[in-house]
Amino acid sequence: MTAVERREIALVDLLDRLLAGGVVVTGDITLRIADVDLVRIDLNALISSVGEQVPSPWGEPA
Amino acid sequence: MTGLRYVYAICRPFRSALQRQLTGVAGSPPKQLTHHGLIAVVSTVPETDFAEEPLRAHLEDMEWLTTTARAHQQVIDALTVVTTPLPLRLATVFRDDSGVRTMIEAREDDFRRVLDRLEGRVEWGVKVYAEPESAQAAGPEEGAEGAEGGRTGGAAVSGRDYLRQRRMRTRAREDVWQKATAFSGRLHETLSAFAEDSRLHAPQSAALSGASGQNILNAAYLVPRAESEEFVELVDREKDDAPGIRVELTGPWAAYSFTGEFAEEPEVEP
């Protein structure tokens, strides 16, 4: 069962769940969840602007 | 000092204690707030970071988002050991405990229903990648990807050979992509039949994940904890050893992707 080896969780896998999953309740501090999609787009933009020579910040534990 | 309440999850009362050294998103330990027979797992966070304005700014900050997401996950993970938590979306914040109580009252029926539904279940993530490069590396062709034509070292290659190689490479890539897509469809069908529920997440961008290859399938499966081993074995068995197709399994996760039944959450769109 090599597949269950526990590795550092990839940030993207985490964000798939934390930004797109989980129960949405209206908190007192309300961020429209649509904003979160914006974040992802911004992340994409961020990454492509950073360029490939810069190691990705979330490959390793922060 | 003024503190806000960050809510991680809603749970049924559980007996075991959380790890003592567990810390939440802003470094303070999570505590349980019991109301109407449900538990909200909360921690105090500073208003300077979690009020709407700073929060909005922070969510654009990769480093902050990373730290916060990991801290959130750590609490959920700890909860998963002792109970079946119903995880809330990242950065769900209330002014004080009474705000949290009001929220519980407003949603308690929903919470109970989904908690019942998820009880004893976990989520597994399965991703399939197409990796044309690795398929080629197995062949006689020079496998150097990246800057096309950037490699002129070694024996000189005629223009015709170069074009031929490039064509072959393109064909190999399409071939792998097609195989991986067909494989993903079959795998998803098999795993969905085993699992109680499934969700498709949008394929991950390679730029964001840093993973090699192209992500074709990014799915989540809801599986009873007791059947997890069997599920993992099933994934292992179904794995295609064909060059150029890679399967990745993650989990077990709290059932993040299966809380949407009652939320106004749209289905994930690519």
Automatic annotation (TrEMBL), chain A:
Signal peptide: none annotated. The keyword Nucleotide-binding does not apply. Keywords: Gas vesicle. The keyword NAD does not apply. It comes from the Bacteria. InterPro entries: Gas-vesicle_GvpA-like, GvpA. Its main location: other. It holds the Pfam family Gas_vesicle. GO terms for cellular component: gas vesicle; vesicle membrane. GO terms for molecular function: structural molecule activity. PANTHER family: GAS VESICLE PROTEIN A1, GAS VESICLE STRUCTURAL PROTEIN 2-RELATED. Belongs to the gas vesicle GvpA family. This is Gas vesicle protein.
UniProtKB/TrEMBL annotation, chain B:
GO terms for cellular component: gas vesicle. Its main location: other. Residues 133-160 are annotated as: Disordered. It is found in: Gas vesicle. GO terms for biological process: gas vesicle organization. Keywords: Gas vesicle. It holds the Pfam family GvpL_GvpF. Belongs to the gas vesicle GvpF/GvpL family. This is GvpL/GvpF family gas vesicle protein.
